[in-house]
Write a structure and sequence with these properties.
With 430 residues, this protein is α/β, with parallel strands linked by helices. The chain contains nine helices and 18 strands.
Length: 430
C-alpha cells in the first residue's frame, strides 16, 4: 500500500524558486450537459455532478537552481500541476508561489497560433513573456540556430511536423532567459539527436542557476538529470525527495503492478497454461509458437523488468519442441539489444556445448544466469530456438521483444557495458 509522505514546508524566500502547499484541483463531472443547467437553477442546491480530484493536497518546494523530475502514470496529475504552475489553470484550493520569470513547454504547440508562421510565433511568445520586439530581435539568431528548421520558419506552424514544433518551442523557451523552466514531455517527440542537444542545453541552464521542472517517463533521464523527484499517483504525492530513492520506489511499484496480472505459479502449471503473452516487435520462424514461457528474475528471485547494475539476473525459457525435430541440433538462445537494435550480449546453449538428447518429453526449461554490467538504460530481450545443423543457425521460433526492461544504477555510468576489470598499480621509482 502506497501512502502520501509528509515533509516540512517552508515559506518562499530568496532561496526558493517554487513553493506549492496543499494544492487541490477539482473538476465537476456531469453525466448529461443538461445537469449543469439543472444544478445552477436548483433552489435547494442539489448536486448533479460527481467530483474528480486531478490534484489533492499536493505540497513540495524547490530551491533556486535545483532540477525536479515529476513522474507518475498517465492521469496522475502531472500536466495539471504544470498548468497551474504556469498560470494556465487556477487551483480549486491551496497556494502556488513561483519566484522568477517562467518559460514553459506544455502540450506540443501550447501558446502557439497555428495560423501564424514560425517567425510570427517567436515574437508572439516574446510578447507573452514581456519582451519588446527589439529585445526579441536580439534573441532571434539564437532561436533560429537552435531550432534548425530552415525555410519552414516562414511557413504557418500548422504545416509543421511534431518534431519541428518541438524544436521551435524549445528554442524559444531557452532563449528568453527563464529563471524557472517547465517542460511537459515535449522532448519525447524529437529525434535522438535533438533530444541530446536539448539535454546539453538544459545542463548549461542548470549550471547557470535556472530552476527546471521536468515531466518524463524515462526514469534513466530523470536519474541522470534531476536533483529531486516527485511521484504523483491519482493526484496525490506518493514520494518526494532524493531522485534515486523516489524512482526506485516508483519502478518497483510499476513492476509490481504489471506482475499482479501474471500467474503466480506459472512454472508448476501445464504448458498450455503457462504460455506467456508476448508483445513482440517481431516474431518469426518455421515453428512459431513453440516458445511457451519467458521470464526475467532479479537477484532475489523475483520477477522483474527493473534490474540493478551489478546484480545477478536470471532468464528462464520454456519451449516445447516438436517431436519430429532432432533435439541434438536444437539450441536455445537469448540476446539483449539496445533501443536501436544492436546486439549487446548473446548467449546460447550450443555455444556452451549443451546438447539435448531424446527424452520422454520434448518440453525443455533452460535458465541463463549472469551478472548485469549494462549501464542504466532501456533494453530489449530477444529469445530464440535455433537449429544448429550448419554454421549459420536457422530459427524455429524467434521473438524480438520477449521482454522489455530497464537497468538502473546508483551512480553515474559511462559507456554501455562494464564487465569486471582487474587493475594493477605500481609506483615507479624516480
Amino acid at each position: 500500500m502506497y501512502y502520501k509522505k509528509g515533509f516540512m514546508m517552508t515559506n518562499l524566500n530568496e532561496d526558493n524558486a517554487v513553493l506549492v502547499k496543499d494544492l487541490t484541483k477539482v473538476y465537476k463531472l456531469y453525466d448529461n450537459p443538461k445537469d449543469r443547467l439543472k444544478e445552477s437553477l436548483s433552489f435547494i442546491r442539489k448536486k448533479y455532478h460527481s467530483e474528480f480530484y486531478a490534484l489533492n493536497g499536493v505540497s513540495f518546494s524547490i530551491k533556486k537552481g535545483q532540477t525536479l523530475g515529476i513522474i507518475g502514470k498517465n492521469g496522475s496529475g502531472k500536466s495539471t500541476l504544470l498548468k497551474i504552475l504556469t498560470g494556465v489553470l487556477t487551483p480549486t484550493s491551496g497556494s502556488v508561489m513561483v519566484n522568477g520569470k517562467v518559460a514553459a513547454l506544455l502540450e506540443l504547440g501550447a501558446g502557439f497560433n497555428v495560423e501564424y508562421t514560425g517567425i510570427e510565433n517567436i515574437y508572439l511568445q516574446g510578447t507573452i513573456m514581456g519582451y519588446s520586439r527589439e529585445q526579441m530581435d536580439q534573441r532571434l539568431d539564437g532561436i533560429l540556430n537552435f531550432a534548425d528548421i530552415g525555410e519552414y520558419i516562414y511557413q504557418p506552424v500548422k504545416t509543421y511536423s511534431s518534431g519541428m514544433f518541438a524544436r521551435l518551442a524549445f528554442a524559444v523557451a531557452i532563449n528568453v532567459d527563464p529563471e524557472v523552466l517547465i517542460i511537459d514531455e515535449a522532448l519525447a517527440v524529437g529525434d535522438m539527436k535533438f533530444q541530446a542537444k536539448c539535454f546539453n542545453r538544459l545542463t548549461e541552464l542548470k549550471e547557470n542557476g535556472v530552476t527546471i521542472l521536468f515531466v518524463g517517463h524515462d526514469v534513466s533521464s530523470i536519474r541522470t538529470f534531476c536533483d529531486l523527484a516527485l511521484w504523483l499517483h491519482e493526484g496525490e504525492v506518493i514520494e518526494y525527495g532524493n531522485t534515486l530513492d523516489v524512482t526506485a520506489e516508483y519502478m518497483k511499484y510499476m513492476n509490481d503492478d504489471v506482475s499482479t496480472l501474471e500467474a503466480s505459479a506459472a512454472i508448476e502449471m501445464s504448458l498450455n497454461k503457462i504460455a506467456t503473452d508476448f508483445d513482440p516487435i517481431n516474431r518469426w520462424g518455421s515453428q512459431q509458437g513453440i516458445i511457451k514461457y519467458v521470464e526475467m528474475f532479479n537477484s532475489k528471485g523475483e520477477k522483474s523488468t527493473v534490474i540493478n547494475f551489478g546484480e545477478t539476473v536470471s532468464i528462464k525459457i520454456i519451449t516445447e519442441v516438436p517431436k519430429e525435430v532432432d533435439l541434438k541440433f536444437v539450441s536455445i538462445a537469448f540476446s539483449i539489444k539496445n533501443k536501436v537494435g544492436t546486439d549487446l550480449m548473446v548467449s546460447t546453449t550450443y555455444d556452451h556445448n549443451h546438447r539435448f538428447t531424446k527424452a520422454n518429453t520434448n518440453a525443455i526449461e533452460v535458465t541463463f544466469e549472469f551478472e548485469n554490467y549494462l549501464r542504466d538504460d532501456e533494453y530489449i530481450l530477444v529469445v530464440a530456438i535455433e537449429e544448429r545443423k550448419n554454421l549459420q543457425p536457422e530459427y524455429f521460433d524467434y521473438i524480438e521483444g520477449a521482454k522489455y526492461f530497464k537497468v538502473i544504477s546508483e551512480k553515474k555510468i559511462f559507456g554501455y557495458f562494464h564487465p569486471p576489470v582487474s587493475q594493477t598499480i605500481n609506483f615507479m621509482k624516480e
